[in-house]
Write a structure and sequence with these properties.
This protein has 290 residues and is an alpha+beta fold. The chain folds into 3 domains: 117 residues; 32 residues; 137 residues, Nucleoside Triphosphate Pyrophosphohydrolase (Alpha-Beta Complex). Helices cover 27% and strands 29% of the residues. The chain has 7 helices and 15 strands. The strands form 3 sheets. Strands 1, 2, 3, 4, 5 and 6 form a 6-stranded mixed sheet that branches. Strands 10, 11, 12, 13, 14 and 15 form a 6-stranded mixed sheet that branches. A hairpin with a 2-residue loop joins strand 4 and strand 5. The structure holds zinc ion (ZN). Zinc ion binds next to loops.
Length: 290
């Protein structure tokens, strides 16, 4: 069993293999450690783990452990001069370090381990919850309430106008990163409603021809991104104060310098736009970008 160990909502413990400690992090391959590898280092994993995800022939579990305990283990492996040491890395950064299937298995393990940690007690009557067998769910022995892993849907959309794509910078994002618009679905909304509302709130623009494109689990901490394409139907660009600090229409050959990572559905929407509205050279140029 492989075990994705989290110290908080942002980091995961990975094992670096085969490289020296001085290697630059982006040029090194990592893997999700096995329970055996960790127990060799004195980290005992709870034995009643759920098997959260399957990666090839391996089962991946997820667990939260105290940071102090992990730091103690890391210090010991460094003192030994271990050339294949463990490291705590950012969960998003792990996309560049792990095999991409391992990365998504790790994220699924995070989603479920996080739910497990946050539902130790019944939300209605505060009794400790018990596991149901045969499925990933819990029940309350006192009031009979159930808990299943929560998934929060969010919509993300390409809006196209005159062959240009609507892209924006959010103050929450890195300084130069521009992306398509996105937001959470609200209670009682259809996905199409959510697309129209989010685009209007964030940009002042109306859309039509809202068409399903693709989806992607986004467990940061528990979302499912549902992607759409759409067309401009009216309105003037008016960025939402506090949410968007710059917004504009971008041609396929004049995309912003920094755009979302290749593993994200946002990136696939941008690639869709360039393949539909740009030239072969524009698409080739985009596919060569990191
Ligand atoms: Zn209860």
């Amino acid at each position: 069993m492989l075990i994705a160990v989290f110290s908080d909502n942002k980091s995961v413990l990975l094992r670096r293999h085969g490289a020296s400690g001085s290697a630059r992090i982006h040029h090194t391959r990592y893997h999700i450690p096995s329970v055996d590898e960790l127990s060799t280092e004195g980290v005992q994993i709870p034995t009643d783990l759920w098997e959260f995800a399957v990666r090839g022939e391996d089962v991946v579990g997820g667990v939260f452990l105290e940071r102090a305990r992990l730091d103690h283990m890391l210090a010991r492996t460094r003192l030994r001069g271990d050339s294949a040491a463990f490291e705590i890395v950012g969960r998003r950064q792990a996309a560049d370090l792990l095999d991409i299937d391992d990365y998504w298995a790790m994220n699924r393990a995070f989603h479920l381990a996080n739910w497990d940690r946050n539902t130790r007690f019944c939300g209605a009557c505060a009794t400790p919850m018990e596991r149901l067998s045969g499925e990933i769910a819990k029940t309350c022995p006192s009031c009979g309430g159930h808990s299943y892993p929560q998934i929060s849907p969010a919509v993300i959309m390409a809006v196209v106008h005159d062959g240009k794509l609507l892209m924006a910078h959010s103050p929450r994002h890195p300084a130069n990163l521009y992306s398509v618009l996105a937001g959470f679905v609200e209670a009682g909304e259809t996905l199409e409603h959510a697309v129209s509302r989010e685009v209007f709130e964030e940009s002042g623009v109306l859309v039509r021809n809202i068409t399903y494109f693709s989806s992607q689990p986004w467990p940061f901490p528990s979302s499912l991104m549902i992607a759409f394409t759409s067309e401009y139907a009216g309105g003037d660009l008016t960025p939402e104060e506090g949410e968007i600090d710059d917004i504009g229409w971008y041609a396929p050959n004049q995309l912003p310098d920094e755009i979302p990572s290749t593993y994200s559905v946002a990136r696939r929407l941008i690639e869709w736009f360039v393949s539909e509205y740009g030239t072969g050279d524009d698409l080739q140029h985009l596919l060569e970008r990191s």
